[in-house]
Each structure stands twice: as structure tokens, then as C-alpha cells.
Design a protein that fits this description.
- The complex is a heterodimer of chains A (about 400) and B (about 1000).
- Chain A is built from 8 helices and 18 strands.
- Chain A is an alpha/beta fold.
- Chain A folds into 2 domains: about 230 residues, 3-Layer(bba) Sandwich (FAD/NAD(P)-binding domain), CATH 3.50.50; about 150 residues, D-Amino Acid Oxidase, subunit A, domain 2 (D-Amino Acid Oxidase, Chain A, domain 2, 2-Layer Sandwich), CATH 3.30.9.10.
- In chain A, the strands form 3 sheets. In chain A, strands 1, 2, 8, 9, 10, 11, 17 and 18 form an 8-stranded mixed β-sheet that branches.
- In chain A, β13 and β14 form a beta hairpin.
- In chain A, α1 packs parallel to α5, α1 runs parallel beside α8 and α2 packs across α8.
- Chain B folds into 7 domains: about 150 residues, Ubiquitin-like (UB roll), CATH 3.10.20.440; about 220 residues, FAD/NAD(P)-binding domain (3-Layer(bba) Sandwich); about 120 residues, 3-Layer(bba) Sandwich (FAD/NAD(P)-binding domain), CATH 3.50.50.60; about 80 residues, no CATH class; about 160 residues, Gyrase A, domain 2, CATH 3.30.1360.120; about 90 residues, 2-Layer Sandwich (Alpha-Beta Plaits); about 100 residues, Aminomethyltransferase beta-barrel domains (Elongation Factor Tu (Ef-tu), domain 3), CATH 2.40.30.110.
- Helix content of chain B is about 25%, strand content about 30%.
- Classes of the chains: A alpha/beta (about 400), B alpha+beta (about 1000).
- The interface between A and B is large, with 106 and 115 residues.
Amino acid sequence: MFEILRPGFLKLDRLWEERPMKRHYDVVIIGGGIHGLATAYYLAKNHGVEDIAVLEKNYIGFGGSGRNTAIVRANQRTRENVRLYDEGLKLWPDLTDELDFNLMFFNCGNLNLAHSEAALSSFRLSINTANFCGVKSELLDRESCKELIPALDVSDRPRLPILGGMYHPPGGVLRHDAVVWGLAKGASAHGASIQQGVGVSAIDTDAGHVTGVQTNKGPITCNKLAIMAGGYGAAVCAMLDIELPIHPLTIQAMVTQPLKPFLNHVISSGGYHIYANQTLKGEIACGAHMDPQVNYTTDATAWYFKHQAEAMVELLPCLERVRFLRIWAGLADMTPDMAPILEGNLEFDGLYLDCGWGYFGFKSGPVTGKYMAEYIAREERPDILGPFTLDRFLRNRYMGETATTMKYGHYD
Amino acid sequence: MNRLPATPTQKIDHDRRIRFVFAGRQLEGLKADTVASALWAAGVRTWSRSFEYHRPRGLYDLEGEGASGLVSIDGVPNRSAGTTLLERGMTIAAQNVSGSPDRDVYGALDRFDRWMPAGFYYRLFHRPYRAWPFFQDRMRALAGLGRLDVDARHDPGVRTEWYMNADVAVVGGGAAGMSAALAAAEHVDRVCLFEARPWLGGHLDWRVREVGGRPLRERAIELARQVAGHSSIRVLTHAPVTGVWGENLVTGFQVGPRGDGGATEGYDERHWECRAHTIVVATGALERPLVFEANDRPGVMQVDTAWRLARHYGVRPGEQIVFSTADDLALEAAADLADLGVQIVAVADARPEGLDGELAARLRDLGVELMPGSAAAAVGGRRGVTGVEIAPLEGGQARSFPCDVVVAAAGRQPEIGVLSSAGAGFEYSAHAAAFVPKSLPDGVFPAGRVLGLTDVEAIEASGVVAGLNAATACGALARSGSGDGESRDADERALGSAIRDAEGRLAGLPGPAAGSGHVRGPMTGKGRKAFLDYDEDGTWKNAAQCVEQGFDVPELAKRFGNFGLGPGQYRVPGQNLAMAMAELTGRPVGDIQCTTVRPPLIPPSLATLVGPGHDVHKRTPLHEDQTARGAIFRQAGAWKRARYFSDDFSCREEIRNVRENVGLLDSSPLGKFRVFGPDALRALQRVYISNMTAVGEGRCKYAAMCNDTGNIIDDGVVTRVGRDDFYFTTSSNRAGGTVEWFRYHTRYDGWDYNLVNLTDNLASINIAGPNARAVLSRVTDSDLSGGAFPYMGYREIQVGDSIPARCLRLGFVGELSYELHFLASYAQHVWDLLMDAGAEFGIGPFGLEAQNCMRAEKGHIIIGTESEQRVTLLDIGMGWMWDRSDTESRKVGAPALRACADQTDRLKLVGLRLDDTAGRKSPEGPADGALVTAREEILGYVCTTRYSESLGWRYALALVRDGRAERGTSVELFQDLGDGPRRFAAMVVPPHFYDPDGARLRG
């Protein structure tokens, strides 16, 4: 109890062990991001599978896990999605406790702004669906939006005036790196081996079964292989000639100089293609735009930088004289229905796939890891992952996470 | 005032005093002072409190490199004191301060550092979890630097934009950059030179040391004169570069010039972008901070800070100064300051040998004690510097020197920001003790100190080499000479030999000087208050704690320990982080990668990025008329459209007038196309799911397009104007993508047809209601009778005296109606004709919402409202359009429709009639988006629902799982918009509520 009063009470031990790489593992996971680490953690903790290697080409959290704006919410459009994200949302406090690592969950609520009657209608659908499933969500008129966030300009001045909003109290933001490190800590403590700087160049198969991977540090054999490489998932699958309906797009985010707190909720606007929140350090973190070209680069673009400033000043005119400090980009692996592909029933036995999250990969990380671990350990698809099959695209059974089918590339 | 006598290097005007306020005190500066120089001259030492420990901070650099020098000016937070010019009447406030800058309430936090090791907050405050929100709120309250008043509006002044092209863009207006610009401009026509400071000259600008018998600053003036006089060089000063993006796009902003009275001339700040063929990067070098105890005390400053205070602003940096530095430039600074009458107590140099002999002798002559191989270990003083301990780096007794300023640096590091953002790679040079460029992207040429060069002649020579190479690479040869082979050969020889000469000259000059590889002084403790990163209070001890916890490479330590994430970004701690990680892990620096540099390199304000603003939307030719009639507009796709004509958003009156009388709708955004040519029909057959061969001349056919998955993506009417000539409409949102859609889906066929988008050329007015014919017949002589011009007919008529119009008899809103398409320039005239003709009937305008209600009553869908990604053409009951027998046309979407034609358990479009149990004609009911439910199941949702005055009951169009789609089935609607659940009973009915037989359309 009084330990906290003693300097040096915190043990500054390594968060995760550096273990020598073996030549064989029961399970190999490609990708040291939130999904891969969470799956390793739950495999080891819940299913007693400890002989696991997480292979990360760069350093853990290099990809989307370290580049997102760490916003979490559960007000999806369809019930199947609400169910998964709701459980994901409820997991953060438990996970903080289990991992004994503060993931800095700021339960501030999310306000999504509508600039058209059509957007209000689509909010109503999401709100009704959420509330029907027991997830709190409410429709606000423009005055209530202003009450919630005094810095918002709810006048008719902006190009797209604010007509109302969807407020979702259970949502919020976390510290994304902390989630990566905390999961690495937990996975390592339960025996999983985290291998940084190990890139996979080929996947070995034999008689319809995956047998291992070729890496820059030599070959590794395994009984089961999980591809959890985020934005690079489709590229890894291409090593097995598995073609996925995934378009990787560059998505950008940025922060301003640190300011004293004034924005106490996450705001987002489909009309302006923007979301923003104020971090624990005081920066306004914002982003959301995706470059339309299919590509694997993580270069930021000048025109978007400018465009984002325009959008921010429209919604929050007090930011006019504030300065942008840093812009960066990551990859979003977009599917046509904005829902992921979680699949263990592929042409190769022992192969598991977790990809196609688009920009929902952060908020879904731990909960997906939990159920993918179950899927891998029991070799049986958990009920909650039921809808996220790969063959839904063949059967023309889209998930309906967005109203319109997403098309990417050079035509609309 | 602490001012030195006037010298020619000074920028200030001693006779022009400028009054300003800091922390409530009236102070005075001079014209051309920066906020930093004015504050320091006025004796202000503490300008802000640090991020985590609330330690006093102030002047460290004059380049805006970090948080210490950020102040609030006239209510605008986080302005850089070092680069902001002082203006009359400025009110300057310290940041991150509770109380006064000198007595900060949170200053005590400084004593608790042992409870705050690197990443401590990840390991604390969450046990038990319910305690976390309490700590989180406390942490949040302490966060941030500047305070923003969300209600205050700061006039951002005039913000403009400038987009330019260049053969060669040169970043940096020092000796290397100017030499590069001059060399390049001999061979290409468009050279742009960008300099962040308000003047050219770089570090030569204030140096009076003589090289070749001439003070260096005279060389700078000479180069600047040549650059300014060269007709092929465009110079932008006070124009920091924010980044180099793809394809050599250089961006930045420029601070506008100020007139004598302080007023803006032309613009306050402008955003600029320069698309260049090639880029010369001559960004110079930054100082590498020396790490020692209390190296953040106000009074510890960079070499150039002290030097420029004296040379540029005539400010005496301190009364007694001790240097702890590591290069010859610092020795020169010390000697120069001493020459100016500033007392230099001692100069410690981390290099044990290799000091410039001439400068060392000068210092000794001036009575300055020179201590090679030594560095600062700690400074004394609580709010400012009272003394410094200097000790030999290889061990030995420390000596104390009383002083009020310590000039400290571990050396210089190339300013890699621009190069790095252009995509260059770097490697550690042990000789120069600096990361220097290793791999360069195409078209990027570094020059000067960014290469690690230190000799001024070599810096200039490297500029010439880079300028000539940049000119060559951007195609100077291809464009010089007028194509005549002989003269081109001569040019090629001339440029080639110029490059050889320049390279030869550079090779004969000294390369980079040896640098000191030390990061820290001979500290005795763990470095509890020895800062690697001033911005977020990252100490040496914190770096060691990062390594202990496994965060042992710069990219991980950056994120875990917050090194280089503050306002100074990559500059502080810069290269020191890599060197610290090397030292702490015992690895060679060469094995360690620096962190990624992220743009913007200098932060631009959002207002400057926004510029004059670009509110891009389309207005119809009737926009002003609709505005005058009280229209309330909404953005709909690219257009601003009139949605309501009163504040009754149920549009009762507008609807009634159309249903009972006649109304006018400005439908100009409707997509309008002509497709013609021998293969026009084949193209239509491909993209439309309907059978287009059946379109008769003079007839309209309602038709739809699907995408590859069988979703309906567009609907409209197609009419055959001539044998191979068709006219068709699309939904407004689709108009922009239609041409590309046709082209894409016929790209391999080589068909001969032309497609013309007439959307913006033609206006469209829809006249609808039982009296539509009566009104229209008053403005045209054409026969509009039902027999001559039936429903779904197409005629070309003349309106008024001479306006040709395409007239389509349609019925989207369910009434007798005509659509007139004609040249947009006639729109107001035609509208007025119709309004005049209809006056006696009480004609009135109606908006999109009224149209929306009426079409829904009629059961006409809007794509994206009654359709979505989960439903196909078949699911919304429009399968009758699809010509299943046609496999030859390879209709887009047909394979998908075929594949799922027999699937069950799909969403289907149904009509719903809502019971009014109370028997009242109440318009109360659920709204769009209500769920269709059965106990705990969600069966679908309501797309559109309204109470209909015409029907006397509430209807809904809904997408419902097919089991419930049977007519007569009862379903339940659920709505909870956060105000509690409500349920409504409804019955499935056919989705055509109003005039199901279409008698009114055909009338």
C-alpha cells in the first residue's frame, strides 16, 4: 500500500523477454501488431498453447498498431459487428488489469457529426441497432452537440453545417503503443516468443498443409500458421497465391502542438472525412483521409495536409492559429463491405487468416485475438466470428457495415 | 538595457523602440528584434515551465527548435519566441505556468522525478481500475503547453497561396545554397531559393572572421547581391520549408513583409508549393546539445544563440560566460564575443586536440582560459545559472566557475530534416561524429554543412557542385541550344567541364572536421536532470530506464520515453538519441538507426494551410432565384440544392400544392448525357441492366445500372432521339462518374460511340401536379395533350418564343409532370415564364424534401436510401427490369444477379403501413432508421417513413428479411434514439402507396 511512497518502487524489468529463435514452433504468427500479439497472449493464457512465435519484420507495433488514432467504439451499423466491437470495448479495463499495464483507456465518448438529412437517417439506424443490442448511443441536435463540445462551430458558416450528431458514451481512446507493449508483456510472460526483425519471405506447404515459413533468419517449421500482418495481410497471402478482395490504401493522421485540454470527446465527421481527439499530452490528433490509389506506401501527402487543416478549421475554428506538428501514414486493408476476413477454412490446413480490418483494426484487436486464439486452438470457428468468412464475397453476402459497397482504385 | 553598441552585423534599429507586455510588465524592445531577443535584452529569464517537471525554461535557441522557447502571444498559444518578430503592443505570456513564471504552483513536481521513471504511467494508476479515471483526470489537467481560448477569434490576417514550378529548388540561403542557385541558374531558367530566416547568408551572415583577406559576412553579402540580381533566380526569404513530398514537391510558408508602421504588405502569411525537377538541399547544421546536470537552466544556451544575440540583436548574452563546446565555430564565437566586450571566463572544448591553433591563440591572448578535453558536468543555480562545473572528460578534478551564462554544445549535426523527408538515408560518420547522407533519392543534391563540411570554402564549392549536378539532372542539356547537334555537344562539354572543375576544386579543399563523439559531459550522477529532450523532460536517466525495460533502439525509446515527440520534433534530441542508445547498450553508433523524420519540418498554422479557403461546390443556374424565394440549402454531392422552402420541414404546403395543383422544382443537377454513334446501343446494353433495344424513338424508358455485385447504382430514363442517338439521365450523385463507368466497362471492345456529359450545360425544371399541362401549354405551342404526348414520352419543344427544350413526360413524384431540359443560360427566363403562366393557379416552388416525400409515397426508390450493399436489383423488387435472356451483351451485374437470384434470407424492399391504434390522424411515429424487429431479432430497418396527408396514414419503405416480406404480415418497429425504447406496430403492404395504378401519371 505504502510502496508508492518509496522511490524505486517500480520494477523496471524488461517488458518482454528476448528469447533465442527456435527452428520449430507449434504456432507461428506473422505480424507483431495488436492482433498477432493478442492472439499469442490468449493462445498461451486461455488455451495452454505456449510454443508460439510472433514474427515481426520491424519492431512490434511498427505497422497500423502504432499509426492509428487509437479510437474505440461499438456503434456499428449491423448487429453482427456491434456484438464483436461491444465485447472488444468491454475488454479494455479487464485487459489493463490482467496485463498489469496501464493502457490509458480514456472513456470520453464519441460524437459523430451529421451534415445532411441522409447522415442523420443513417445515424438513427446505428443508434437504434446499438440500443437494441444494449450499447448506449444517442441522437443529438446541433445545440446539444455544442453543449457537449463548446469549441464546435454549429452555425451555418461552415461549408457543411452541423445538423446533429450521434453520441456514443462507451467509446473513447487509448494509448495505442501501450496496448502493443502490454500485450507483448502478457504474451511473453505466458511463454510466447516475440521475434523482432524477422521478415517472412515464403510460406512452405506440403500436401495441402502449411508446414512453415522462410525468413531472413532462416526457415522455421510450425504446425499452424496465422497471418495477422495488418495492412500487409493480402501481400503475405499472395505468397500462397491466395487472392483476397482487399485493397490496401494509405491512410494519414497528424497531431497539432500540445494544448491545454479543451476537447474532451472524440469527434468525427463523415462529411469532412475527419476524426479528432485530444491526447493525454494535449495534442489534437486527427486524420481519417485515405488516398484513393491502391498502394503499399506510407508516405504522407502535401495536399491532404492542407485539406485536413481546412476541415479542422471548419469544425473547430479556434484551431486556426494552432500549428500542425507531425503527420504520418499507415495502411488500411479495405474490403468491399468494411468488415474483416477471419478464416481458418482455407485450401491449406493449419492456416489462419485475420485481415481486412480497414481502419477498424485497432479497436477490434484484443477481442479478435481472444477468439482467433480459440479458433486456432480448438480448430472450430467461434460463434461470434461466424459472419466474417472469406466465402461471403463469393456468395454475395456482404456484411452491410456501410450502406454502399466500397470500391477502390481508379473508377467509382 | 543590455545592448551592445551598434555594429554593421546588427539587424535592429537602436532608435526605434517597441513597447510590449510580458507577464503583466511593460517592457521595451527594438525594431527588428525577435520576441526572444527582446525578452532576453529586457532581462526576462523564465518564459515557460517544462512539460513534466515544470522546470523554468527560457532562451535556448533562436531557431524555434523546441518547447522551451514557446510563448503565448496575444492569446495565440505556442508561438516561437526565437523566430517571431516583435510587434508593437504585443502581450506575451509564459506557458504551462500556474501562478507566475518564477513561482509556479507545480514547480514542486521537479522534486518527484524519482517517482516518475520512463513510462511510469503505464505501470501506475490502474490498480484498482476504478482509481484510474481519477488519476487520468489529474494527468489530463496537467497536459498541454499553450492554452487556447475556444471562444476567441484571432484574425488570421490575409492568407494567400502560391504554386510555382522550378527547374531547381534550392533549400537554404547560406553560402552553399546561394552558390548552388547561382551555378544552376547559369544553365536553367527557373531556380527557386527558399530561406527560413528573413535574410540570406546563413551562418556567414554575422561572422566577421577574415578568410582570404575579407570578412566572411562580406562574402555573404556579395553572394546575396548576385542571387538577388540574377533574373533566373526567385528568392523567398522568411519562407521555411515544411516538407519534401512525392515527386519533388517542396512545400512551405512565407511570413509576409511588414511595412514601416508594422502593417502587412500584401499578405500576412502564405502557403507555397513548388514542384521542382531537382532539389538542392543546403540546410546547414544544427547544434547538438550537450547533456549534463541542469543543462536546461535558463542561461544555458546554444553557441549561435549567444553569438547571434550579440551580432544580430546587439544584446549582451551575459555578464560572465563559460563555453562548453566542441568545434572551432564555437571557439570563433567565444573570441568574437570577447572582441565585442563580452566577458568570456573560460572555454572548455570536448576535443582533447585538433583545436584551431589561430583561434586558440586568440582566446589565450584575450585572457580566456581554454580547457581542451573538458566539458560541463553540471550548472548551479535554481532559476538561472550561477556557475558551472567543468571537468576533464577522461576523469579528473572538476573546477567551478561562477557565471550567468553557459554556452553549451556537444558539436554540430547536419540538419537532416529536408533531406530525410525527401527520402534520403543516413549513416554515422565516426570521424565527423555525425549522421551524414548515405543514400539519396533521384534528383536530390545535398550541399554544404548538411554533408558535414565545416570549411567555408568547401561549403561554397560543394554548393557549386550540387547546383551544376541539379541543373544537369533536370535536363538542362536537353533544353539548352536549339537542337543543333553541334551547339548541344558544345554545351554538354561546357557543363561537363564545369562540373569536373567544381568537383576538382571541392576535392582540393578540407573535408569534414573531426567531431567529438561525446553526448554528455563528465556527469557524476545518473543524469536525473540531464536532459536529452527538453520538450518532454526526457533525461539521461530516463533513456537508461528505457533500455532497462527493453526499449533499446531509438524508435522504441522515442515512443516509450517520449524522446523527440515534442514541439522540437527530430531536432531535439536528434542524433543524441541514437548516440545515447549506443552508449547505454554498448553497441557502436553505426549499428543504430535514427528515428524517422516526419513533416512538417517547421510547423505551419492551420490558417496558413487553409489559405483563402476553397469552398468548392456547384450552384444551379437558379440558385439566386431559389435563395430569394427563401430556400434552405443543403450540400448534395457536388451541389448546393434547395431542400426546403419554409421552416416547416415536413413540407406540408409544398406537397399539397403539387398534389392538388402545380409546383416547380429546380432539378438541374440531374445527370444528362447524350450517347451516339454506331455502337451507342451496344454500350447502353452493356451498362444498363434493362433491354435497351426496346427503347422507341420519342419514348422514354426507365432503366437502371448495376455494379458487379448486382447492386443498383443508378437509375434514370433513356430515350432514343435518332437511330444511333440516345439521350439519358442519371441520378445527380452519379453524374460525375458515368462517363468513366461507360468507358471502363467497354474498354476492351473498341466500340465506336461518343458520350457527352451535358449535366452542367443544361438546366432542368420539373413541373408537376394536376395543373402542369395547363401551365406548360401557356408557354409552348406544342401539343401536350395526352394523345399527342403520352406518359413516358419525349418531345423536343419550343418554350417561349425561341427556346428549344427537351421535354420528358415523367412522374417521379406521382403526378402529371414534365421535365424541361434546355441550355442553362435560359434557366431564369424559363423559370420566370412558368411562374408567370402558373400564377393564376397558385404555382409555387418545391424542394428536395417535398420531392423525397412524394416519391416515397409513390414507392419510387432513391438509390442508397432504399438500396444498400446487401441488396441487389432483385431484392428491391426491380428484377423486372433485367433482361435475363440477354447473355450476349454481357451486362454489368448480370452474373451476380444470376448467382444470387434464388437465394433466400436476403433483405427485401417492402412497404409498411403503420397502425394508428388511437385512431388519430397523428403524424407521430418512428423516423427513418427505425428497426424492424421480432422479439430479440432484427429483421431489417426502415429506409424512409413519413406521415402522408394524401393517404391519411403513415407509410414506410423498409428492407426486411424475406421471411417477413409476405403481404399482410404484422411486424414491429423499434426505435431508441437514446430517449428510451419505443415500439410501433406495422403491416407489410405493397411498396406503392399513392395512386398504385398510376392513373394520375397518365392523366
